[in-house]
Amino acid sequence: MIRLCDREDQQAIYEIINDASRAYKGVIPDDRYHEPYMAEEELSREIEDGVVFWGFEEEGQMIGVMGIQDKGDVSLIRHAYVRTTQRNGGIGTKLLHHLIAQTKRPVLIGTWKTAEWAIRFYEKNGFRCVSTAEKEQLLRQFWNVPERQIETSVVLCDSRWTAGKFIIG
């Protein structure tokens, strides 16, 4: 069952993100990976900054989470993770489709360029990578990430995105 998460779910969100993000170890640049991957304080800031989490629950246990953040002209998919033991069962796809249905705006997703499984997942679900120049502008405009992360990331867009249409000069 997919449901909107609330404050009581924050510990489960934290655990899922940090469990699933271990897949990045040795894949993304060493200077970008740390444990925990997302500290509790960072998760709290993300929620305060408008990331709304939805969870996939089965038998009373949260096993997948995905956030969506309204950025005015676009919606961002943020922090999409499924517990390691539950991967490849369609949970991420169900969450993604549910969140896409929550907005009429174009949807953008940022991920690590070396996380090939994540890129394949989003492409399988109708997303495509934007150009390098557009990626850099989008990451600076809609995300708050360091330059090193901009260098090592990609941005994917859904079919509602028209290149440059929403970019503020």
From TrEMBL:
GO molecular function: acyltransferase activity, transferring groups other than amino-acyl groups
Pfam families: Acetyltransf_10 (PF13673)
Domain N-acetyltransferase: 1-144
InterPro entries per record: Acyl_CoA_acyltransferase, GNAT_dom
CDD domains per record: NAT_SF (cd04301)
Keywords assigned by UniProt, alphabetized: Transferase
Protein name per UniProt: GNAT family N-acetyltransferase
Organism: Paenibacillus dendrobii
